[in-house]
Amino acid sequence: MTTGTVEIPGYVAGTWTVDAVHSTVGFAVRHLMISKVRGRFGDFEATVTTGADPLDSSVTATVRMDSVDTGNAQRDEHLRTAEYFGVEEHPTMEFRSTGLRPARGEGRFELDGDLTIKGVTRPVTFDLELGGFGPDAFDPDGGGSRAGFVATGVINRTDFGVDTNMPIPGGVALGEKVEITIEIEAVLNAAAGV
């Protein structure tokens, strides 16, 4: 499909629900300034709307913060406390897109939006790579569609009130920058009427 200056092979307009089984919301943060700790959130949902003009597309997402998993139960429990995520008071992280624009490279865009963590909302921009559109091999009736997207970005956790840190010789235990990687496989809603 070609609209204006954006050409996307196999493009399908409609409303898509994220298939959480085939999707990942992950993050990485510097630890002791010599390595990175990686983690993911296991409980999330999102809706993607691809517009007739691809640049009119949008996404909303909700992530349950208590579903954090870094591979260490003690660390995960600490992350759930008020020192970090404060999940009792702020159980979810929210994202709502505000704009989409082309970037350099085929199938690449910049996705702007508002990210809310611990009740603090800040504008963020993700690099978005379109994986493509194709048939849904899991659709028992046939005729369904799937789409894939990868969004990456970096936020400063202290901007969102996640500012606890422990001084160590030569620096601090955790870096302030958090790398976010979101890999999404989405299913076209039957009601979309494509």
Pick out its properties.
single chain, 1 helix, 194 residues, mainly beta, Lipocalin, eight-stranded antiparallel β-barrel
Q: List low-pLDDT spans.
A: none
Mean pLDDT: 89
Named CATH architecture:
Beta Barrel
Number of helices: 1
CATH topology: Lipocalin
Shape: globular
Which structural class best describes the helix and strand composition? mainly beta
Number of domains: 1
Give a written overview of the molecule.
The chain is mainly β and 194 residues long. It has one domain: Beta Barrel (Lipocalin). It has one helix spanning 73-80, and strands spanning 2-3, 6-7, 14-18, 24-31, 35-41, 44-50, 58-64, 68-69, 92-102, 108-117, 120-135, 145-156, 167-168, 171-172, 174-188. The relative contact order is 0.22.
How would you summarize what this structure contains?
The protein has 194 residues and is mostly beta strands. The protein is 4% helix and 56% strand. The radius of gyration is 18 Å and the shape is globular.
Element layout with pairings:
Blueprint: E1 2-3, E2 6-7, E3 14-18, E4 24-31, E5 35-41, E6 44-50, E7 58-64, E8 68-69, H1 73-80, E9 92-102, E10 108-117, E11 120-135, E12 145-156, E13 167-168, E14 171-172, E15 174-188
Antiparallel strand pairs: 1-2, 3-6, 3-15, 4-5, 4-15, 5-8, 6-7, 7-9, 9-10, 10-11, 11-12, 12-15, 13-14
Family: Belongs to the UPF0312 family.
InterPro entries: Lipid/polyisoprenoid-bd_YceI, TTHA0802/YceI-like_sf
Pfam families: YceI (PF04264)
